[in-house]
Amino acid sequence: MDQFKDSMLKLITETSTNLPPDVREAIAKAKAKEDRGTRAALALTTIADNIEMAENNVSPICQDTGLPTFEIMVPVGVNQITMKKEIREAIAEATALGKLRPNSVDSITGKNSGNNLGPETPVIHFEQWEHDEIEVRLILKGGGCENKNIQYSLPTDLEGLGRAGRDLDGVRKCIMHAVYQAQGQGCAAGFIGVGIGGDRTSGYHLAKQQLFRPLNDTNPDPELAKLEAYVMENADKLSIGTMGFGGNVTLLGCKIGVANRIPASFFVSVAYNCWAFRRLGVVLDAETGAIKRWLYKEAAESEAAAKEVAASEAQPGTGRQVVLQAPITEEQIRQLKVGDVVVINGAMHTGRDALHKYLMNHDAPVDLNGGVLYHCGPVMMKDEQGWRVLAAGPTTSIREEPYQGDIIKKFGIRAVIGKGGMGAKTLAALKEHGAVYLNAIGGAAQYYAKCIKGVDGVDFLEQFGVPEAMWHLQVEGFAAIVTMDAHGNSLHADVEKTSLERLAEFKEPVFA
Ligand code: SF4
What we know:
single chain; alpha/beta; globular
């Protein structure tokens, strides 16, 4: 097994940087369904460009490289202790090479281990089988979509749908609700894995395992196959759209598995995955650990699908395009409206959960008056020339909702950039203090990294770790869409309201 570690490094790198053909094909189909000139079409074009850039640069598709989860099948007699050790070494090496962001933090203190290793990270599951090869499957699932996983205990009452009972129709309602509640926060359009039954723990595991199924397979259970087809036919009617911008495509895949349960419990567990659906696999020689073949890469149309998604055409604008140089004035901000595309040049500062909490009770290390705050935890590398940004897409903004309004007021921030939108408290602060929320395209980490022309410095690196540190960046041509303006308008609130109305149309039983 002298080649095993090298094979794992290849698997990790390929999974992080090169989306599988079936996922590319699903995104290409979504692009074809969106009308030109819409916000969703613009987002999908950016996503397509980003996918190609990541592959060409061999850099992470999204800056959130997630929690690596390995599912491994081994012949009897293979040494799992050695394999585990070498997987951990490969993870640390991939992190040092910038293929993974350091993402493993102490749950209590928040201290980042710096190499993606820690208790239960990475996650590694072994099973034995009666074959003489080793199969390793890997999924990198980021936090934005992980936070939109949801578990239902039936019977239950669901917003918009009413009672979901202990039957297949109850399951149907849960799945439709799961898509609705994710809105754009999990970087829609997404893929869902559903686990029916089990207990709370095994139900989620079953749901995540469904994400390993190829997108074009057919469920062997005819009832579940029907339910999968129903969900795929109807979820798009919620009109949540890419990034929650509204649009014709909301869901790219639905796979459902079932396990037995105990009579007292009936769980439906849903694992939501963003468009950056990074899962791959390899089959290895059990003697040497060398890669014999790749999984998920054999689809007949793979070449064509890859080309199709890459062939993005320029999209006409979705509204006004306004170029702003930071620092920005209140007057400039109050002229912006939901739908405008803003192109930012100049200084931008990153800030996530740890920084927002800190700023509530401390001064900022730099002047933020008129400034641009970017919800982003980038992948960074340091060399002789200094810091380089390897990946820098937006993170989910709603986590900062408890702090954002106060921080806008305290520091005079004029623009907050993130993804998925924010709530009523932030919307009120935007109006009162003259600021906007700009939605960047979630997962487009290569696309935005290219707009960053320099790193002016960093604060709190030791204290908070790479993703949570405050990076001071110089950007050029950084484009994002105004989705919450200083006049009290929120595209996110509008899409949520419309999608709830649409959800209610699925109240009547279908699988009675
Ligand atoms: S694409 Fe969005 S949800 Fe997915 S890992 Fe990246 S930031 Fe998170």
